[in-house]
């Protein structure tokens, strides 16, 4: 089912994301991780799922998160500070790109597992699912990783404007079925279309609830 929020919660989300947002650093190795000094929210998803558009849409800063011209090229945890000292958004590398070298995939799986298992300030991970494709094998692998690390996660369906209402309703039901028995998954999904602003206020409200 989709998450619902009252006006106070929606307003809190808008306030949180109304401040400045800036890129802090990119992390390629675990030893480069910055000190935990605020709440962290991580975004994960397959290459081309729309993570950059979602982060830019949430913050209202065009170009804050930049999509690589070559899918699967980004291989860093990108840190973005938001709302003074309240929140950091972490853009995880896109996964599931067939042309990525096996040695690179293995290296990054190690970095991601280390980050997810050991990051005290990580409050939640949002896993993005493309509405046109639904959950795929690489997504289930990410679910396994998050379950093993005991990191609470929630699914965000992106590009909802690319399919019709009936298809979206079917997809939402299928997505809920996939996570029904997942140990760390929250039993709610967010429906979004970042370029149109659809679902952005609700996702902001969800995140604001983790900060307060």
Question: Can you describe what's shown?
Answer:
- By secondary structure, the chain is α/β, with parallel strands linked by helices.
- It has one domain: 3-Layer(aba) Sandwich (Rossmann fold), CATH 3.40.50.
- Helices cover 36% and strands 22% of the residues.
- The chain is built from 6 helices and 7 strands.
- The protein has a 7-stranded mixed beta sheet with strand order 1-3-4-2-5-6-7, sandwiched between helices.
- Strand 6 (153-158), helix 5 and strand 7 form a beta-alpha-beta unit.
- It is globular, with a radius of gyration of 16 Å.
- Mean pLDDT is 89; it is low at 69-73.
What tags apply to this protein structure?
212 residues, alpha/beta, Rossmann fold, 6 helices, globular
How many beta-strand runs? 7
CA(first)-CA(last) distance: 24 Å
CATH architectural category: 3-Layer(aba) Sandwich
Count of helix runs = 6
What is the number of independent domains? 1
What do we call the CATH homologous superfamily? P-loop containing nucleotide triphosphate hydrolases
Oligomer: single chain
What's the mean pLDDT score? 89
Main β sheet profile: 7 strands, mixed
**Estimated radius of gyration:** 16 Å
Which strand order spans the largest sheet, edge to edge or round the barrel? 1-3-4-2-5-6-7
Q: Which structural category fits the helices and strands?
A: alpha/beta
The top-level CATH class is Alpha Beta
Fill in the CATH topology: Rossmann fold
Dominant shape: globular
| Beta-strand content estimate | 15-25%
Helix-strand string: HEEHEEHEHEHEH
List the uncertain runs: 69-73
Helix content: 25-40%
């Amino acid at each position: 089912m989709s998450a619902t929020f009252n006006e106070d919660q929606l307003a809190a989300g808008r306030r949180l994301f109304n401040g400045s947002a800036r890129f802090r650093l990119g992390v390629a190795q675990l030893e480069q991780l910055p000190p935990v000094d605020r709440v962290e929210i991580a975004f994960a998803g397959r290459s081309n799922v729309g993570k950059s558009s979602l982060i830019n849409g949430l913050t209202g800063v065009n170009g804050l998160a930049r999509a690589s011209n070559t899918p699967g090229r980004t291989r860093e945890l990108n840190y973005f500070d938001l709302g003074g000292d309240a929140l950091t958004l972490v853009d995880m590398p896109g996964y599931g790109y067939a042309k990525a070298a096996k040695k690179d995939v293995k290296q990054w799986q190690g970095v991601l597992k280390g980050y997810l298992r050991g990051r005290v300030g990580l409050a939640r991970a949002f896993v993005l699912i493309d509405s046109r494709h639904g959950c795929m094998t690489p997504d289930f692998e990410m679910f396994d990783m998050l379950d093993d690390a005991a990191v609470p996660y929630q699914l965000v369906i992106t590009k909802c404007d690319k399919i019709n209402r009936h298809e979206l309703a079917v997809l939402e039901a299928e997505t809920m079925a996939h996570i029904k028995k997942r140990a760390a998954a929250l039993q709610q999904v967010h429906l979004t279309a970042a370029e149109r602003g659809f679902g952005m206020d609700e996702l902001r409200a969800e995140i604001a609830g983790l900060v307060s």
